[in-house]
Amino acid sequence: MAEKEREESLVYNLLSKDEKLKNGIHNESIVDIVDSILLMAINYGASDIHFEQSQNDLRIRYRIDGILYDQTAIKKELGAAILSRLKILSNLDIAEKRVPQDGKFRVRICKKSENIQNDNNLIDMRISTFPTIYGEKLVMRILDKSQNNIELNKLGMDEFTLSEFYKLIDRPYGFFLITGPTGSGKTTTLYSILSHLNDGEKNIITMEDPVEYNLDGIVQSQINEKAGFNFHTGLRSILRQDPDVIMIGEIRDKETAKIAIEAALTGHLVFSTLHTNDTVSAVTRLIDMGVDSFLINAALSGVLSQRLVRSLCNSCKKEDLITEQEENNLKNININNFKLNKINRPCGCNNCFDLGYKGRIGIFELLKIDDEIRDLISAKNSTKQIKDFLIKKNMKFMKDDALKKVDNGQTSFEEFFKAIIH
Questions:
Q1: pTM for this entry
Q2: What is the pLDDT of residue 120?
């Protein structure tokens, strides 16, 4: 079978009910239900669909802008058939319900019956099953490349932060880290960086777990722990591939960190992620891993810490006075030099599906490693001591960026506190 034909066999053409009628297609009810669930999730811009079997029914939830929303539950007798349908599409064993399984398939949104073979609407679906006491739980990740094609200047950085950020990532070599919890948009930022650097003159190689989106012109590799291909072993091989830019999905241990730093010291530009709450903690985390402070000073060029907050819907947000309780809440987290008189609150309309929010925006904290910071690292100062120094230097922290976005109406006071209190 030719490569194109093999790819076509893995693609599921997703038609709306109207399109099915136009094409004279009359599927069984289970097929129609599954199609409706997928179409609605894609239309809502959901990132995940959760199927959870309970004692009485199949619970369905969409994750939209980071929040799970309940949908209409399905009768229990139909639930197993729906999960089987999804497992068949994902090429999974429908008889195996005792152990977790992972699979994937692609859907093509067909807006016009004559455009069934149009490749512009392909969306990857990643499936994961998990056995529970009432049956299987299935989670589907929706990987819509069109929703992830974000330029660096559209992530939400202010002009000064963006300007400093460009200076750091446009260097010919160095080690740059992006930090934040799971779901904070680190992968999107990494892909945006690689897209910016992908000018056709550089050999860019990535190691990811998993590869979420295919980037044209970039060599991407998938970690395979069972085969012994992990970040540690793979990074050593990458260095023999004559790379200019290297992206490592995550720094998980001392060995990976040391090889990444060595790569930066030998003239490569290296990007990776780390799970820490802020920029300064990333430095102390590397030291805790056992990386020598002199190596960190020599290689680390900067750290970007980030979170995602929901953006207020521009069609229905309403300006309101800040309450006395909200003012007190600001004082409790040591924000006294920022006067906030009015804020915007979510309302809900047809444009945002009555959620009050539409899309998400990043809040950022950028630490540029200069000589003063290197001196503090060499002296083995604590995280608090480095932060106190940065406060005196008037560095803009994540809470400052988030509060500015509240002040200009981009997000709500509630989102500010959810992102900052951690």
A1: 0.87
A2: 57
The DSSP symbol for 45 reads T
Kindly list the strands in the beta sheet with 357-368, ordered across the sheet, starting from the edge strand earlier in the chain. 219-222, 204-208, 245-248, 269-274, 174-179, 300-312, 357-368
**What is the largest distance, in Å, between two alpha-carbon atoms of the chain?**
74
Cα distance between residue 251 and residue 303, in whole Å: 13
Query: pLDDT under 70 in the chain at which residues?
Result: 1-10, 15-28, 110-120, 146-149, 334-338, 422
Nearest to 65 by CA among 357, 404, 314, 356: 357
pLDDT value at position 1? 40
* CA dihedral sign, ordered 230, 236, 238, 244: positive
The pLDDT value recorded for residue 267 is 94
- In whole angstroms, give the CA distance from residue 75 to residue 59: 9
Q: ∠232-236-240 over CA atoms, to 5°?
A: 160
Interatomic CA distance for residues 81 and 27, integer angstroms: 14
| Nearest residue to 277 via CA among 303, 295, 309, 310 | 303
Q: Which amino acid is at 246?
A: I
Structural tokens at position 105: 């398939």
DSSP conformational letter for 393: T
Q: What is the pLDDT of residue 343?
A: 92
Strand 174-179, strand 269-274: pairing:
parallel
3-state secondary structure of 319: strand
Total length of the chain: 422
Q: Do the beta carbons of residue 304 and residue 165 sit within 8 Å?
A: yes
Averaged pLDDT score across all residues of the chain: 89
Query: What amino acid occupies position 116?
Result: I
3-state secondary structure of 290: coil
Residue 420 neighbours by CB distance under 10 Å: 19
Residue 250 phi/psi, 5° resolution? Answer: -160, 140
Nearest-10 Cα torsion for 207, 210, 213, 218: 10
Contact residues for 17 (Cβ-Cβ < 8 A; gap 6+): 32, 36
Question: What are the tokens at 270?
Answer: 């290296």
pLDDT on residue 7: 45
Q: Is 229 exposed, middle or buried (0-12, 13-18, 19+ CB in 10 A)?
A: middle
